[in-house]
Write a structure and sequence with these properties.
It is a single chain. Helix content is 75%, strand content 2%. It is built from 21 helices and two strands. It has a two-stranded antiparallel sheet with strand order 1-2. Strand 1 and strand 2 form a beta hairpin. Helix 5 runs antiparallel to helix 7 and helix 7 packs antiparallel against helix 8. The longest helix has 27 residues. The protein starts with a helix and ends with a helix.
Length: 421
Amino acid sequence: MVGFMTINFIFFVGLARLLQFHTGGILYGPDILLTASIPIFIFSRGNLLDERWTLRAFLFIGFWFIGALISDIYNATPAEDLVRGWSKIIFFCTDLSGLILLTKRDYRLLVSFVLGLSCSYLIEAQLFPSELMQLEPWKFGYSQGLTPLVVVIASTRSVQRRFGLVGSATLLLGIAAINLAFNFRSMFAISAAAGMLCLVKAAIDMRPERRFRFNPVTFAVLMLGGWIASSGLIAVYSEAASSGILGIEAKDKYEKQSSGDLYFLQAGRAESLVSAQAIADSPILGHGSWARDATYVALLAGLLEEHGVGTFGDVTASSLIPSHSHLLGSWVEAGILGGLFWILILVVTILAIYKSLKYEQLYFPFVAFSLVLLDWDILFSPLGGDQRFLTASRICVALFVLGKPRRLDRVMSPVGPEDER
């Protein structure tokens, strides 16, 4: 059994996100605590690389770092940017290592870590909000705390035994609607997708024989159906935003991003157009850590103007090559070896979603939400700041799902053996 002290400690590790040290970049409390835990727990928790997918993940992180090293030498990256780029990879690796060692494939410990992070966001948003939180308090503050909290509640045995996964899905769809009301579009889509996965899982679990029929082809069809269903979510948002139901700010944002000839989702992530060009210009070696090139910044500004897309703020304020994606950003900086790691994790995440739907799964709403959010971040979110350990915790979920089954998963699952008979 997991000790009360262990659960409290890992909760504190998540809460330590409130501790931030400015050393060129930002070093967070979890970065320090998770790194320090490695030599302590590596002896008591066993082999870090005892699962094949975990071994592959760390192997590809090594390739990513080698890619950054070669890229920086080739591009003669300034020392300051080089240190920032290397430390990002190193601390991401130690964050992932520390979380694997601390949690040792126990979902309760990982949930405790996420709860600590959620509390840190709520405390920061209320007591000492950052500039981004002051600008958009729900998106960068309260939602980051409340949405995972609702997900955890939806994953508890009490909720699932009383209301089933349908009740869990209702909670997720409810928080999705709240995120939509506050114009947090990406979290609306992620929460809604996780809620829909809960409904699919409920339908599969209703009859055990459906698990045998759920194969890769069925999964591919389901994913295609999900992609088509996303059109409905987009239509809901478009109608609500354009009509002013979501407020003046949401209407203004939607009109700016839909005013040109780019699809509004693409207009909202126009950086991908530029990062794709930067990758095409140097696909193998990349452009170096913290890659800077005003040419690509000017290209982004020109593309937005050419396609008639309105912008918020000055896109030329930074000289960094625009990317706004774990995958594209790493590929731009470290070349193909940086991109390969995130392609591997994308594959791992998709396999984990398939396995979690097909087989009995502990804390399914938490798993579904984490995996959908990880997919989104790989494709559409920059890897910086606290995203290092946030992403690391979600990769842990994917690795847990693909790992060897644990006796605890079966004992504590809301759908026990007696329920299947």
